[in-house]
Amino acid sequence: MEFPILSVMLAVPAIAAIACLFVKAEAARWIALFATLVDFALGILLWASFDVGGAQWQFVEGPINVGGFNWALGIDGISLLLIMLSVFLMPICIGASWKSVTDRVPEYMAAFCLTEVLMIGTFAAQDLLLFYIFFEGGLIPMYLIIGIWGGANRIYASYKFFLYTLLGSVLMLIAMIYIRSTAGTTDIPTLMAYDFPPQVQTWLWLAFFASFAVKMPMWPVHTWLPDAHVQAPTAGSVILAGVLLKLGGYGFLRFSLPMFPDASGDLAWLIFLLSAVAVVYTSLVALVQSDMKKLIAYSSVAHMAIVTIGLFAFNRQGIEGAMIMMLSHGLVSGALFLCVGVIYDRLHTREIARYGGLAENMPRYAVFFLFFTMASIGLPGTSGFVAEFLSLAGLYQVSTWAALICTTSIILGAAYMLYLYRRVAYGPLDKEDVRAMPDLSVREIALLAPVAAVALWMGVYPESFMAPMRNDVTTLLARIERATPASDSRPTPGNPEAAAAAAAEHGGEAAHGAPAHSEAH
Amino acid sequence: MSYASQLATTLPELVLAAGAIVLMLVAAWGGQRSTRAVSIASVFVLVGAGIALIGPASSGATAFGGMYRADAFAAYAKVLIYAASAIAIMVAPRFFAQTAGDNLKPEYPILILLSCTGMGMMVSAGDMLLLYVGLELQSLAAYVLASFMRRDTRSAEAGLKYFVLGALASGILLYGISLVYGFSGTTLFVDIAQAYAGDLGGERSLGLLFGLVFVFAGIAFKMSAVPFHMWTPDVYEGAPTPVTAFFASAPKVAAIGLGMRVAIEAMGPATADWRQIVIFASLASIVLGAVAAIGQTNIKRLLAYSSINNVGFALVGLAAGTPEGVASVLFYMAIYIVMTLGSFLVVLQMRDVAGRPIETIAGFSGLSRSHPGLAAALAIMMFSLAGIPPLLGFNAKLEVFNAAVQADLFVLAVVAVIGSVPGAYYYLRIVKTLYFDAPAEGVAVRTDRFEGGLLAATAVFISPVGWFLLAPLGAWTMTAARSLF
Asked: Which of A273, B79, B105, B480 has its Cβ near the most Cβ atoms within 10 Å?
């Protein structure tokens, strides 16, 4: 039997979580850091031994019947990248809480280790109900993290977070039970090729949509997110923005699109509509925020809208762009929350107006903050650019109108992020307590630098991140091709020159994924 | 079948009844001093009855002309009943020793044994009259148990309320039985089923239909399903906590077991008729159990509404009316009684500085700081009762929803699952009190090793460790359920 690396990756933080509860604060910190670093090392091993271009599902374990559901794990390229994101951010979260959390440290570290187990499990589950268990189980530690270590209004935020997401998910559970009784299996790879009748697809799609739209979050069910972010401790926000928001996108990619392609095609307009509203509306809301975390939270909603339009563009650029957007947003907005945490630890306020002129007394901080601001805006050379460009290019092929509206996100994003940066880092350094703030410590640099490096890497050479998922996107495209919504940007037949150019461009798209050339048409 | 072999099938009830009578004599002569010995002996009697289930008592045999059924279904329900009763006996001495006023008397374990005899007959009944006798035996013992703390007015009130409303319910049930008997000419389940089956062919008999409605109303009272739930919060609040723990576990299993046997064996051909009643009771219980619990400040009242809510979910499985549905209900009950006993075990540990039991939810504030283990155990129970994975309460709900979906009852499943969200709110409120609030003053928790160990065992069972037991439990409930069809 092969080395069950995925189960081990789940077991390490699980054991650490239990161990944390029985030791004192300092020991708990080290146990949590050690466990998350071990998981990160295992993650690198996982990526290194992942056979790019090999079998679709690798490191498969199980299925073992547990009673009602199966223990079945396995990953494809998409899962691999999201697992990497989780294990990469986790040690950073532990490090970010090293000094700022002093109350009930053992429980805190246990909650984070538990969150890591549930996140990895969600991305690695190959059984429908096992997925649900991990997906929904994540509510418990997050509820406790927000409620115990959160800000002043934490109790309201924790209830809202829990009940909102629970209400979305329970409908998905009924849909999953229906799938199990109709299709007779809960094996995700099998179901990804199972054809439900079109009218059934619509209902199932809507049930899954209820869950993923809340998790994502999409406008208008995004209102739990700003509350949760503002009240959560720094590391909680990082993990919430970095990984938990990706569960919605992952769900669309893993369930909605391949399992219900016809319904996805029919209802793509709904996604476009909600996403376009979200981009404009939440960007404008972000512009007027006076609380830094709330601003970044609203920017997350806008970025997640780019993910959804990319996914439902039904073409390679869109889907790959959406995936890169998820990874990029996970890194960048996680890092932005860290940046907020750094100054929050010093001044204990998130009020933007309380800061100003930080570039003078905290130059190193200002550099990092600027880098992540630019990455969030999508400056070429950073991961954000690759993500936005690909998603919007994909969207343009389906709906020029939606693309027109959604592209405003680049301008509006620049507006609110630069405005934030100007108010925090530039301007006169006229406040005594702000002047007294020391620059980044070595620990803080050690937290921010790796994220910056990866964001730069993803911006300069995205191929490293696109290669593992290329075949999976090809498989997905082959599956959903028949349901592609009608495009309004195809050149008319009356213009042969443009049609030829379009054909050539489409060849280019396939060449972009060389092995996929034949499938693209 | 010889008389001896017929008696052999009822061996568990014989053990319990004989044990109860012998212990009653011991108590009569031994008096107060014999309390401890009688309690210990009672637990052994329950263990003995459990052992007696192996053999003829679970062979699937039918005794006394079809009146008594010794099938796998009855055996499964009895295992749960005996286990819950044994725990109710074992946790009582400490509770009474710490509570000023009333001492534990040797009658307490004896009454539980008698109640168990009645419950065993309820789940084994193949005849309406045996059902009624078993139910009354169980109830009469329970009325006395509810008012066991004679100097406590709330306890006396609980006993009286329980008795008056219980008598009313018995009347309703008996009226239903008399209608069924009058229009079918028999009290045997198998023959009643034939009457209902024949009824479907020709003219519909209104009498049989009315009988069905009244029988279900009477049973709904015993399982405390809405709209016959009103006694539950008062009785649960007033009764001594070990007794409440008992009421919330063993008699629930017995009542639901009885309800399923009547529904499937006696009235199986009329499934379409009783399904409406069950669906209504189920959804009403889920909604009322969830909404009414939100405003509660007493933990025992809250757990009473929680039990109403849980009965609602269990009935979702019964509404399916299939072997899978029955199995899912049995599965649900096993996990439910562990969760509810675990919750009451935590409540039992809560004392203030003067030694009085703490029953207000506010008294649990910040328990996670002073007693992290106790708080964690209660939090696990609450998340599990709310049906959040990866705890076993989720698997229980999954099974009943699965049964409902397989029986094409989509609307029921969707409404029930949405109804679980307001329910989650009040369970979360307990977790919030435990973890987010500042510690309460004057809490002096007293735990002993035995109850602590029991609590830890229930918490571990509910945690993902319990996944290892899901497959065997599922297989066992399926075997039990098939014996009804």
From this structure: B480
**What string of DSSP letters covers B315-381?**
HHHHHH-SHHHHHHHHHHHHHHHHHHHHHHHHHHH-BBTTSPBP-BGGGGTTHHHH-HHHHHHHHHH
- Which residue type sits at A351? E
In tens, the pLDDT along B35-50 reads 999 999 999 999 999 9
Instruction: Give the minimum alpha-carbon distance from B463 to chain A in angstroms, rounded to a whole number.
Output: 12
3-state secondary structure of A361: helix
A177 contact B CB<8A? yes
The single residue listed with the structure tokens 């020709």 is: B202
Please give the residue that has the higher pLDDT: either B156 or A485: B156
Q: Which residue of B has its CA nearest to A105?
A: B369
**CB within 8 Å: A137 and B473:** no
C-beta separation of A328 from A455 below 8 A:
yes
Distance from CA of B51 to the nearest CA of A (A): 27
Chain B residues inside the 8 Å CB shell of A144: 431, 435
Q: Round to whole Å and give the CA distance between B214 and B178.
A: 10
pLDDT digits (tens, 9 = 90+) for B361-415: 888 888 888 888 899 999 999 999 999 988 999 999 999 999 999 998 989 999 9
Interface of A with B in 57-116 (CB under 8 A): 65-69, 104, 107
Mark yes or no for CB contact B390/A139 under 8 Å. no
**CA distance readout (Å), A342 to A30, A397, A433, A445, B304:** 21, 42, 15, 10, 48
- CA separation, residue B97 to residues B103, B163, B321 (Å): 7, 27, 46
Which range has the worst mean pLDDT, A440-449, A506-515, B30-39, B63-72? A506-515
Alpha-carbon torsion, ordered B336, B340, B345, B347, to 10 deg: 160
> Does residue B227 have a cis peptide bond before it, meaning omega lies within 30 degrees of 0?
yes
